[in-house]
Amino acid sequence: MNGAPFRHIGGAVIADHGALSLAAARRVAAFYRREAEHPGAAATPALARLCLERARNLDAAATAAIEWRRAAGWSDPDQAHRPLARPV
Prior knowledge:
Structural class: mainly alpha
Strand content: 5-15%
Oligomer: single chain
Shape: elongated
Radius of gyration: 15 Å
Strand order of the largest sheet: 1-2-3
Largest sheet: 3 strands, antiparallel
């Protein structure tokens, strides 16, 4: 596989193991950024670059998903992951 396995498809962030919520995508991107900036990362620059690339690709996929959801009418893009209210 070339590049990071994060994509945006129809308002969803897709990883190599399935869809991610926007909150999860943000957490995973933050994790990869921390790994890239960790003091020990200087010893393995290729690994640091890979983590930074994954963080950037995940951020780009999340941004595209947010834009798609807003264009589809969601005022809060995170609402797409909340359960629908059912009438009683």
